[in-house]
Specification:
Elements (H helix, E strand, L loop, with lengths): L26 H9 L16 H13 L3
Amino acid sequence: MEKSDGTGVFIEADTVINAFGMKPNTTVGKAISDKFHTKTRHVKDCVSIGKVGNAVRSGFFAGLTLE
């Protein structure tokens, strides 16, 4: 297992259950936003982790704000 600071941990076990957190990769989105700031919106997992229904809703409302 790798911790968020990059160090590794070995856990000896018969059964392991994981819930994986995600870190957004905003590299491409930031590059596009820097060039087209008025036409770019960052939605859901780029902003905060959530459920798919919230992501769809967030994308819908972001699309409404574009001209």
